[in-house]
Amino acid sequence: MTSPANAAPILSRTLSIADVPGDGTTVRIVATEAERSALAADLDLPAIHRLEAEVTVKPWSRTGFIMEGRVSADITQTCVVSLDPVEAKVDETIEVKFAPEAEEESWLKRLAAAAEADPEATGEDPPDFFAGGTLDPGAVVEQQFVLGIDPYPRKPGAAFDAAAYGAAEPEEAKPSPFAALAKLKKD
C-alpha cells in the first residue's frame, strides 16, 4: 500500500461493542465503486471489480471479542512477467481476536511467560487490542483482502525469456570441492 500505515482504512465500518449481543452480530460489507477505486489506486491494481465480506462479531473471553468470516473479491492485477492484465480472485477466511487495550500488558506478560516455560512451543498469538469502545470490521476486511492478493501474479503460460532482455544464459554449476570429499567418504 502506498498510504502511511496509520492512515484511516478505506473500508472503515465501525461497530460499537455495546451493540454486540451475547450471540454476536453479523456485518455484511460490500465495497462501493468509490471504495474499490480508491483501494485499487492505493494498492496499484488496475481494478477491483467486486469486494465483499461477511463477518460475525461475538464476545470472546471475559472482555474481548472474536471476528470470524470471509472476504472475497474479483480483481485485475498486472503479470510480473509480461505486464499483461491478469484476472484473479481473492477468497480469505477471517478470524481475529480482540481484547481491550488496557489488557495488552497482561497479555504480553502471560505469553512471554508461556514462551519462557516452553521455548519449543509455537504458542498462542496475542489478540489485537482496541480502545474507545469500537471495533472496525471494515479495517479487518481490508487487511485480510490485502493479505490475500497474490504478490507475484503471472498470466498463464507467461515465462521469462532472459535472452530477450540481453541477459546471459546462466553458467552451468561447477561441482563443489566438497562434492569430491563427500564421494570419498561414501566409498
Characterization of this structure:
It is a single chain. It is built from 4 helices and 7 strands, in the order E-E-H-E-E-E-H-E-E-H-H. The chain is α+β, with helices and mostly antiparallel strands and 187 residues long. The protein has a 5-stranded mixed beta sheet, with helices on one face. A two-stranded antiparallel sheet has the order 1-7. A hairpin with a 3-residue loop joins strand 3 and strand 4. The longest helix is centred in the middle third of the chain and has 14 residues. The protein is flat and about 70 Å long.
Short key terms for the protein model shown above:
about 190 residues; 5-stranded mixed beta sheet; about 25% helix
List the helices and strands and how they pair.
Layout: E1 15-16, E2 25-30, H1 33-43, E3 47-60, E4 64-78, E5 85-100, H2 104-117, E6 128-130, E7 134-135, H3 137-148, H4 177-186
Parallel strand pairs: 5-6
Antiparallel strand pairs: 1-7, 2-3, 3-4, 4-5
In short:
The chain is an alpha+beta fold and 187 residues long. The chain contains four helices and seven strands; from the N terminus they run ββαβββαββαα.
Strand order of the largest sheet: 2-3-4-5-6
Strand content: 25-35%
Cα end-to-end separation: 56 Å
Largest sheet: 5 strands, mixed
Order of helical and strand elements: EEHEEEHEEHH
Silhouette: flat
